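Hey,

Quick one before I head out. I ran the complex with iron/sulfur cluster overnight. Inputs first:
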Amino acid sequence: MSKGRGTMQSAAIPRKKIPWFPTVDYGTCTGDQECFKFCKNEVFTWDEDKNHPVVANPYNCVVGCQACINVCPVQAISFPTKEELRKTMKRLRTAIE
Ligand code: SF4
């Protein structure tokens, strides 16, 4: 499965109801800033004191996009699975119909 940019978002579902954004494993992160420099949606800010990214704007993340996984050299970034996302979207769509 491709871990690229994508969208499964529906205009009728408020973005903040969709739990899709990166999680950083700070025990694995080496502080190279690749994800911070890569993401143009400003999902990440940088904590200078702790030398690691902060997922400061999680709902700026494009639903279904996992592109920052590919830039992290140590696999410190994770997302929910696509199957979890599909189930969430199905549940949310059912709720608004
Ligand atoms: S790309 Fe990975 S190792 Fe580099 S700052 Fe981001 S999470 Fe940390």
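The radius of gyration is 14 Å.

Talk tomorrow,
K.
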